[in-house]
Amino acid sequence: MEQSEKNIHFNELAIADIARINIEVIARGDYPLAYRNMARSLQKRFDTGLHRWRRKESPIADMKAALGTSGEMVTAIRAWQLDDETLNGYGDVWNLVSYMSFLLGRPAKLPDERLARIREDRSQYADVALEYRILDALEGREWREGLEEPFDRLAANKRQALAVESYRTYFALLEAGGGAETEALVLRAETHYARRARDAFYSGGPTYVGGGPDNPYVVDFTLGAILKKIGWDGESIHRWRCD
Question: CA angle at residue 182 from 176 to 185, to 5 degrees?
């Protein structure tokens, strides 16, 4: 079994284990832990989808299952009256939900009344703040105003230099005029992604960011979403092909 297949297999086992464990966790009333376990399950399903995407297989079933989990999480937030600390701890999963919703073209159930507070909390991290701006662009909201502020914060740490370059390329793609300009920017974004394998900032992150040993097995879903947004149909392992 090749490494990519092993990764998918391990994720599927982990998802099954989480579901089994969560029955007991919910029964004893530990709702914050149950919510965190659901978020971990969503991340594992998303990871599996990215592995299939990289293998040129369809990630749709995995992403639909992840969106199903997100709907269960919304119900849990209301039923269990979870506090902001619990939600913010896994606040980034809602960015993944938004990306999957955009890629699949399927409206996602979101904790709308809580997302503003989650965004405010998570935006203290400059890279996450920039992720929100990308989602604003994908979903048709204003994204340009004040953009340099999170860039300045991100650039303040030399360890984050690759992240700065990557995000500048993403935003340049959103405003590119097409043709040779877009082609050059896509190549630049692909190069930036490949460099994550040896970059200290990305190597410490979750599987789906493609740092360290995960780099050859997943894709740059942010780039994939942007390429879908701008209608680019060139050749790239990161291009979404499931429409």
Answer: 100
